Amino acid sequence: MANSTTILRDLTFYWAKLDKPVSPFGTEQYDLQVRFPKKRVKEMTAYGKIKDQGDGQFSINITRKAKNAKGESTPVRVVDEVKRPLEGLIGNGSKGNIIVYQYDWSVSGKTGTKTILVAVQVTDYIEYKDEGAIDFDVIGTSQDAMEAQSDF
To answer: Fewest Cβ atoms nearer than 10 Å: which of 40, 57, 62, 109?
Structure first.
């Protein structure tokens, strides 16, 4: 296979880490899980390791290193349906398309194909909401409770 760039369409996005890099294995990278139905498993196998989500959906994670060999930042381009830079964070269940770049590699007698996330186009945006932010409700109808409720 020669180096190639491809657009993968009609995907559902989960766990988008595109605003700032993460380093789960010691190297900073951007990461996006894309989900698709069973009928696309054969097609998507070329882009990564397929995981069964157990709900009729399958997924792969596509990544991009946060810096190139020169130490320069390499962010993933994220746009909306009309190619404007997307404001806000991508929430689980958002839908869209991605551009990936693939190249063959060979190191110490081992070979393979690497897939790199280049860009994301969100066509059906769901805003990310931090569900880890748990807080108490204001209880009561006293004046203090009414004033406290208006502070939020």
So the answer is: 109
Residue 1 identity (one-letter amino acid): M
> pLDDT tens for residues 83-97?
999 989 999 999 999
User: How many CB atoms sit inside 10 A of residue 7's CB?
Assistant: 11
**CA-closest candidate to residue 53, choices 42, 40, 37:** 37
Assigned superfamily of 4-150: Nucleic acid-binding proteins (2.40.50.140)
**CA-based nearest residue to 64, from 17, 121, 111:** 17
**Residues 100-149: pLDDT tens digits?**
999 999 999 999 899 999 999 999 999 988 776 666 666 666 656 556 55
Q: Which residue has tokens 């991009």?
A: 64
What are the strands, taking DSSP E only, across the chain?
4-22, 29-37, 51-52, 57-65, 77-79, 94-107, 110-124
Say which amino acid occupies 117: L
In which band, very low, low, confident or very high, does the pLDDT at 151 lie, cut at 50, 70 and 90?
Answer: low
Q: Bridge-partner residues for 58, per DSSP?
A: 36, 52
* Cα–Cα distance measured from residue 47 to residue 62, given in angstroms and rounded to the nearest whole number: 8
Give the separation between CA 75 and CA 97, rounded to whole angstroms.
17
Q: How many CA atoms lie within 13 A of 131 on its CB side?
A: 5
